[in-house]
């Protein structure tokens, strides 16, 4: 286990500055299934996922399985006030391992998860189910965030992408403009690898909401080309200031409901941190 991974796993670590400040999410309201969720619960979810990610990076597979169980049932308690230290330690561990090392680390997981993905696709019969979260920010504006998000993608700002959620391992923009993503989607136990194409909007399974004039949309496909999902994130300015983000990801319909409900928390975590970074 690396020193950085050990630190992240135990809840202590580097003091280096991170992308996301400890007060991440201040001024944000998050809604899951239409219900307002307290910010502390989202940060607690992130802290549990940091423990899982640290176990994976250290190849502590017993700890990984225990962490997954604790994360799902919510028994693993870590103080919210050390979130910045834990984030910094996890970032340092990913950096020390490097992209090639990360690919090697999760290669077997990806091979296994692709089998499961293809099985779900075959059982879904071309149908999709959607995971949704909404975030309202009291600052910034819809167009400003969309521009910030697009710029980070186009400039391949890898720290912006990976630091937003502990379950992000590699997110990088290729020369063809597609994003390669290696992550653990909400509810999954294994890492998966797919490519998001923001130029491919005709096959997006998430319908457009006319109440949201700005959209970030694209498809997700395996390296071999099979379409496995899509995203449509929509944005609008709020009358009293700030903006609202409606975040939606389409999964094959046969995916267990747990994946859909847990991915709401994944969306809440990553977009809360991205919006916080944008507002700074």
Précis, in short:
This protein has about 280 residues and is of the alpha+beta class.
Outline the structure in words.
- The chain has a single domain (3-279), classed as Alpha-D-Glucose-1,6-Bisphosphate, Chain A, domain 4, CATH 3.30.530.20.
- It has helices spanning 3-10, 39-57, 61-73, 83-124, 142-154, 158-162, 257-279; strands spanning 28-32, 35-37, 128-137, 168-173, 179-183, 192-197, 214-221, 227-237, 243-252.
- 43% of the residues are buried.
- It is an alpha+beta fold and 280 residues long.
- It has a 9-stranded antiparallel beta sheet with strand order 2-1-3-9-8-7-6-5-4.
- Helix content is 44%, strand content 23%.
- Helix 2 runs antiparallel to helix 3 and helix 2 packs across helix 4 (83-124).
- The chain contains 7 helices and 9 strands, in the order αββαααβααββββββα.
- Mean pLDDT is 87; it is low at 1-22.
């Amino acid at each position: 286990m690396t020193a950085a991974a050990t630190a992240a796993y135990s809840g202590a670590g580097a003091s280096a500055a991170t992308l996301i400040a400890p007060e991440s999410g201040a001024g944000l309201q998050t809604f899951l299934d239409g219900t307002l969720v307290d910010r502390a619960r989202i940060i607690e979810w992130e802290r549990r996922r940091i423990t899982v990610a640290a176990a994976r990076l250290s190849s502590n597979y017993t700890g990984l399985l225990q962490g997954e169980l604790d994360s799902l049932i919510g028994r693993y308690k870590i103080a919210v006030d050390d979130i910045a230290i834990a984030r910094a330690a996890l970032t340092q561990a990913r950096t020390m391992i490097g992209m090639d090392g990360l690919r090697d680390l999760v290669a077997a997981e990806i091979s296994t998860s692709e089998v499961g993905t293809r099985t779900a696709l075959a059982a879904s019969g071309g149908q999709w189910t959607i995971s949704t979260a909404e975030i309202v920010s009291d600052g910034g504006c819809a167009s400003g965030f969309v521009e910030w998000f697009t710029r980070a993608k186009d400039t391949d700002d890898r720290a912006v992408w990976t630091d937003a959620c502990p379950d992000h391992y590699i997110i990088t923009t290729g020369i063809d403009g597609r994003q390669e993503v290696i992550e653990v989607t909400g509810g999954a136990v294994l890492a998966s690898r797919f490519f998001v194409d923001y130029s491919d909007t005709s096959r997006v399974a998430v319908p457009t909401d006319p109440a949201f004039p700005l959209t970030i949309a694209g498809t997700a496909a395996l390296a071999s080309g099979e379409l496995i999902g899509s995203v449509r994130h929509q944005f609008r300015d709020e009358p009293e200031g700030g903006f609202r983000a409606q975040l939606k990801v389409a999964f094959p319909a046969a995916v267990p409901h747990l994946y859909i409900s847990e991915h709401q928390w994944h969306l809440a975590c990553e977009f809360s941190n991205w919006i916080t970074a944008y507002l700074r």
